[in-house]
Amino acid sequence: MHIVGSIIKGMIELKDKLTPESNPSEEQKNVLKVLLETAENTAFGRFYDFSQIGSASDMQKSFSENVPYFDYNKINTEWWSKLHEGETDVTWPGSPDYYALSSGTTGKTSKRIPVTEAMIAAIKSTGIAQVSALSNYNLPPTFFEKGILMLGSSTDLTEKDNHLEGEISGISASNIPSWFKGYYKPGEEIAQIDDWDERVQRIAEKAKDWDIGAISGIPSWIELMLAEVIAYHKAEHIHEIWPNLEVYTSGGVAFGPYEKSFNALLGRPITVIDTYLASEGFIAFQGRPETDAIQLATDNGIYFEFVPFRPEYINQDGSLADKAPALTLDEVETDQDYVLVISTVSGAWRYLIGDTIEFTDVEKAEIKITGRTKFFLNTVGSQLSVNKLNAGVAHLEKEFDIKIPEYTLCAKRFDDEFYHSWYLGTESDVDADKLAESIDEFLQEANKNYRVARSKALKGVKVNTIPPSVFYDWNGANKKKGGQVKMERVMGEEKFAEWEEFVGKQ
């Protein structure tokens, strides 16, 4: 009998039962009120008169009417840059203790996003809520005694002026609660190694010393790590090394494209739980096994707004038009794409995070990430979001019985005619013309706008197959391996030309 695991599982289940039923809409109103009251004496709060907004009869409406939208470039130029000049109380009281460095999927240049102690506390609180939600899953008591391997960026943060800098996964891991350190792997020493390949090599060397019950990280880098561990120990699958592995906590990108190749590394099925941790905060997590949707963290330092994802509301650079309406949680509907806008305890205000989502359950505030505002493929009216592209790739995997963990594409001109030019990462030898025909037919059936585009400006589809390793090498050459780095699914023609030149040299 695993007494410790049974006690921990029982405590989690009891806490879940004693926690009152949440009301996401009311929680959001309370979060906004606290945000406004806390920041009303900052430079930003005085400029936009937070005191008056907070006392308005309709606080949410007043907030949306009086504070403009910001993307990173706008808020950094107008406000956060003052922090780097030594000013305090700019968009949040005091000065941030950390800056999250993030190039994401958009380029080499790192954004420097403030992370306050209040945000660290909010991330911890949401993490505890996610752990509590494990009571909804049928996990054995032994699971709660096993190690948890978190593969993010290095926890060896850079000290600069009066703060520390690093990727959000490294910042979060460097702030894990003391009670959690006994479970945390790979441990502080290995986690501080900056070189990703060296860190994975050390993980492989130590792997058999650990009894891992759960792993966490971005799917592409987790897959590479697992493959390295398996190869190092000359095993058939990861369960030969970690027989008690029960849970994978995914995040950063949709898990769907990786599902088939990920499962090939396992000896048996495990529970996959999705999360949404961004450089700006811990936004959502999957709270129950009946759905693969994720639940917004509506009571932990982040206020959400939702802009209908329509062409007239999106500027050419992916930013929001000033006229774009923002909806509250009370006003949204299911099966509609929205641009996600957040205000946070790190002093991000009406901030365009760059993701699009749709609600699967409004009452529970459950969503799915559908894509990126900048990765919406609409050059010739095809209006394809990333979730539709993912569905197309999943269709190819099923029809041709292959694995395609990575892909990218561009609406590219060939002799002044537009084609969707795909690069699919697969080790399988499949006729590219058959793949092109199949995904073209699938998308025409799945999306009426794509079907219309194919009868007009979009002349066809071209497919190239390359090894998945080329995608990882591209990320390594352009950004940095591991951490929060994700492959861009849709590229503009200029970036795509760089990509094709890179592929040609491999």
From TrEMBL:
Family matches, as InterPro entries: GH3, GH3_C, GH3_M
A GO molecular function held by the record: acid-amino acid ligase activity
One annotated Gene Ontology cellular component of this protein: cytoplasm
Location of the GH3 C-terminal domain: 391-494
Domain GH3 middle: 298-363
Record Pfam families: GH3, GH3_C, GH3_M
UniProt name for this protein: GH3 auxin-responsive promoter
Organism of origin: Ulvibacterium marinum
